[in-house]
Amino acid sequence: MDLGIEGRRALVCAASKGLGRGCAEALAREGVDVMICARTETEVARAAAEIGAAAGRRVGWVACDITTAEGRAAALAACPAPDILVNNAGGPPPGDFHDWDRDAWIRALDANMLTPIELIKATIDAMVVRGFGRIVNITSSAVKAPIDTLGLSNGARSGLTGFVAGLARKVVRHNVTINNLLPGPFETDRLRANFASLAKAGGKSLEEVRQARINANPAKRFGDPAEFGAACAYLCSVHAGYIAGQNILLDGGAYPGTF
Fold it and tell me: 173: exposed, middle or buried (C-beta count within 10 Å: 0-12, 13-18, 19+)?
């Protein structure tokens, strides 16, 4: 299927690895002019070169911390008028809510709620004027089914979800869509870090924790970031203009509910 987005401009955040990189790879293959950002210069430069080589086109990059005002300014200077915005940032650490002070909550809100809102605010009006825009927020399956050890993420990402629900319905008539992708367990550094924390807390080996999680998933495996990227690319396509304000689970069937 031709997604109809060749030549469009995309800003993909936190895209040197993991799910962000999967999205950048999928968009680059579709002929999108992709700009990626991440905090570590060597990693983001290498990722851009690898993604570009695989797609047969140049992929731009900028080293910045997207969760800061300075980082957002740098990313938007590198890609000032994106047609496609993929919001992504590393999730806050797991733990017990008794241990989280106000600063911990503010960091979580800054990264996983306020940063995407600021980027949306900076880009959406121009999308409306051009009559095309696709915004995809990478959130978490915890928005649908909260995870007890990820309370910071549950709260911050749910706040973003509530904000998007209202705004998405105001701009869809201009062919500008906002949707959320909710990943379950994917083969990423974030998943491995969470398993390490659980293993330490439970006195188990990392492999025991990993295998138990695999066995509990109906798919009997973890997701591939390339699968996630393909879903993101479709939401960014010309064919997805009637999908707005949705929270789309990619979790191998782990969520047990009907709705």
Answer: exposed
194, 89, 228, 106: which is closest to 155 by C-alpha? 106
Q: Provide the CB-side half-sphere exposure for 257 (13 A, CA).
A: 5
Q: Per DSSP, what are the bridge partners of residue 250?
A: 183
Q: In whole angstroms, what is the distance from residue 212 CA to residue 199 CA?
A: 11
Our CA angle for 241, 249, 174, nearest 5°, is 15
Q: Please name the residues in contact with 115: beta carbons below 8 A apart, sequence gap of 6 or more.
A: 66, 67, 72, 87, 89
List the structure tokens of 221.
């495996």
Identify the residue whose tokens are 């009907």. Answer: 258
What residues contact 66, with CB distance under 8 A and at least 6 apart? Answer: 13, 14, 37, 72, 75, 89, 115, 119
pLDDT tens for 1-25 read 999 999 999 999 999 999 999 999 9
Q: What does the pLDDT look like over 148-165, one tens digit per residue?
A: 888 999 999 999 999 999
pTM of the model: 0.94
